[in-house]
Amino acid sequence: MDRRILLLVTDLEIGGTPTVVREVATRLHDPPRVTVSVACLGRRGPVADQIGRRGIEATALEARSSRDLRVIGRLAKLIHGARFDTVLSFLIHANVAAALDATRSVGVRYFQSIQTTQPLPQWHWLAQRLCSRMAEKIVVPSASVSEAAQWRSHIREEKIVVIPNGVDVPATLPPPAQPQSPHRVVFLGRLDPVKRLPNLIEAMALLRGFARLDVYGDGPQRPELTRQIQQLNLGELVTLHGAIDGPQAALRDAELLVLPSEAEGFGLVLIEAMAAGVPVVATEAPGIRDVVQDGETGLLVPVGAPAALAEAIRRVLEDSALRERLIQAAFADVRRRFTWDAAIAEYRRILGI
Q1: Which whole-number Å values give the CA distances from 307 to 73, 150, 200, 293, in the listed order?
Q2: How many CB atoms lie within 10 A of CB 130?
Q3: In the CATH scheme, what is the homologous superfamily, with its name and number, of domain 3-166+339-351?
Q4: How far is CA 17 from CA 77, 233, 250, in A?
């Protein structure tokens, strides 16, 4: 029997979850046996164009805000008009929308995915508790998200399936970046308060003259970060580049990637860096500690500690033996735990493909 599967996500802007949706769709799409389409609740974003270039239909349902309930009708028309037999939704708004459709659907299987450990806003977890009843399984990328879903949304452990996100890993370890002066440190992600970019910028002030920071990504915190950079007189050492289509350009010639978040569902950028031979420094936060083994595949520091962050950055960049050991171990760990082949095999299993 041919399968028609819809992957539904809140948005298709540049970011970790849209990237996961793109990769899962690409790897599951195998017409005519399995046809995969992607839809987002909001307006069409850059990742929709990336998906389209891979020969997969991407639909924007054009919700004007999170309160635009007309999107539920448009979603129902899409699901039933195209005769999808399975819907896999990602993130709370998409999960709620899919669950509302599930209450009046017959013959469609519904799965959901939670990709965060952020405790706030609390209503997200309450809504997830309610809508999870309409899903056969809840897919999460890490043990930390599983624990959060059980604790905050009271989802039964047996309903949760942990499928770590994946990355394309080259056959051999890429050559490391040559040391630069000042050293080149990279952040890649959304400019959102949960990422705690102000802490990293404070750390760069402590490393003045030793390292410079290239920030790739966009988001609501950009004006605040711009002001902080100006106030600390770091204009020549910290550059906000804006969003980019993929991590390759950002990681090229990077000597270190830093992720100072207070919470992550997984931290996809970490394994992207590790697969590219770039060492990582991050915070000992939920989601991150599922990916990085402190002192073995990267260095972890407490959340909200700029001085500790600066010390860890300096340590990796100054200690060539440590740096090489972290790079080698991280690359091997990614090859062992975080390949797309393993992840997609699990998606196929739960979806019955």
Answers
A1: 51, 34, 9, 21
A2: 12
A3: Glycogen Phosphorylase B; (3.40.50.2000)
A4: 24, 34, 18
Between 245 and 257, where is the model more confident? 257
pLDDT tens profile 64-100:
988 888 999 999 999 999 999 999 999 999 999 999 9
Q: How far apart are CA 85 and CA 2, in angstroms?
A: 10
- List the domain boundaries for the chain: 3-166+339-351, 183-337
pTM for the model stands at 0.91
Tell me how far apart the alpha carbons of residues 347 and 24 are, in angstroms, rounded to a whole number. 8
pLDDT digits (tens, 9 = 90+) for 264-287: 999 999 999 999 999 999 999 999
3-state helix, strand, coil in the chain (%, to 5): 45, 20, 40
Return the ∠ at Cα 99 (arms to 97 and 105), rounded to 5°. Answer: 110
Report which of 164, 158, 152, 161 is spatially closest to residue 290, judged by C-alpha positions: 164
Distance, CA of 227 to CA of 235 (rounded, Å): 10
Between the alpha carbon of residue 299 and those of residues 24, 200, 261, 276, the distances in Å are 29, 15, 14, 17
Q: Which of 20, 108, 4, 19 is nearest to 57 (CA)?
A: 4
189: left (phi over 0), alpha (psi -120 to 50) or beta: left
* CATH number assigned to the domain covering 183-337: 3.40.50.2000
